[in-house]
Amino acid sequence: MKARAILSRITTPLWPTVVAGIALGAIAGGLALQSDHTAQVTALVRIHQPIDPNQVLLGGTGTTEDLQSYISGEIAYLSSPGFSEAVKRQAADGGPSSVSAVQNGQSPVITFSASAGDADQAKRAVDAAVTVYGEHVERQTLERSEAAIAAIDRVLSKPQTSDKAQLREQRQTLEVQATDPSGVQVVQASTVNLSSGAPSWALGAVAGGLIGGIIFLSAGLAWRRRAGIVSAPSALDPLLADGSVSQILLPVVKPDQAAGHEQRTIQTARTLYAQLAAPRTGLILVVGASENSGSQAIADLIASAAAEHGTIQRDQLRSTEVADAPQDNAVIRVVDGDTLSTSPGLPDAAALADHIVVVARIGVDDIGSVKAAAGLARGIRPVVVCIKRPISRPNLETANLGSLDAHLERSPEKPRPTEPAR
């Protein structure tokens, strides 16, 4: 029973359950997607196609198609395993060996990028890639120029060679190119890129919170259905269908209406009393489905409204006494019978009752307890009053009825409720 009570407090109202699910889901999701910070470093390099020795010797010029073909070949090299291994050896720090190289559109600019948990590691990898590629271009240019110069020297060494002056001029051009063979220009040095999106842990927290809230909401609803917890007055419709109760009185009593807020309290009391079957006299027995139902608060409400229609006697059924029917039929006797588990004399009092009002606390009482309390009726059909579970959990059993007393004092023609003899 204790576990059941604890679960009912947690799962109804549902918002604490959902909030708990969101909180736990957010924590789990944030931890699940929490990863080390990943830094991305990029560098921009402009590729200059080296002058082909054949162009020097034959007097041709390069075309745009030649440039794109050259860049495509360079991108193929930059994507090769050999380039990755060379970068790894150059960096020599255990950092990322994979550096991507992408051509920016149709331009001769290549973007080198690398990612690592440490920005310095990624930066060293990009710098190593730029260095390795620059050395590769320089080496290729030198090799082609040296091969062309060697070929010119062989031709010049032959006595029968004509137009040696032109050959010497071409050789000099190739030597100049060999002295400055670099075909790589760094447009942007390696730079750490700041992340523009949400961190992964935040996305995990949002997704986890959403999933956790849905799971806890579903679990709370499933548990309430399985346990038969009264979640709304409509949950008691089966008792109306099988004749256990004759009516569910409305409205649902709110905590502030049971705790002495004058205007609301008076309106609620009159509404509940007016729905009792006529004649609304004799013994009105109020029974709680459980100790937490709030039967005393409902009994006080009914007594306050009954006081406007005749003489009333307000009693509390003690654990050792049996309530007697009023001798005068004009007297309206309102008795708080508490619960079956706390009032041994409740069955005898129910046998004398003209009206039985069962109190069910939403989110606390279950349908079985309400039906058991309604089963006390003999020859009459009880009614049910639902009372909401207060968020701040005020003690409805000791509700302040000062405003009710004040209302009765302003009606001198009506007698005030009498307290039971001590």
Characteristics:
422 residues, alpha/beta, Rossmann fold, 4-stranded antiparallel sheet, 14 helices, disordered C terminus
Residue fraction in strands: 15-25%
Mean pLDDT: 77
Strands in their spatial order, largest beta sheet: 5-10-9-6-8-7
- Low-pLDDT residue intervals, each spanning 5 or more residues: 391-422
| Termini Cα gap | 34 Å
The outline comes out as rod-shaped
Please estimate the helix content. 40-55%
List how many beta strands DSSP finds. 10
Structural class: alpha/beta
- Total domain modules: 2
Can you count the helices? 14
Q: Can you write the helix and strand succession as a string?
A: HHEHHHEEHHEHHEHEHEEHEHEH
Major sheet description: 6 strands, parallel
Describe the structure.
This protein is α/β, with parallel strands linked by helices. The chain folds into 2 domains: 1-227, no CATH class; 233-409, Rossmann fold, CATH 3.40.50. The chain is 46% helix and 16% strand. The protein has helices spanning 2-11, 14-32, 53-58, 64-78, 81-91, 119-156, 164-179, 200-227, 237-241, 262-274, 295-306, 346-352, 367-374, 402-409, and strands spanning 39-47, 100-103, 109-116, 184-193, 247-253, 282-288, 312-316, 332-336, 355-361, 383-387.
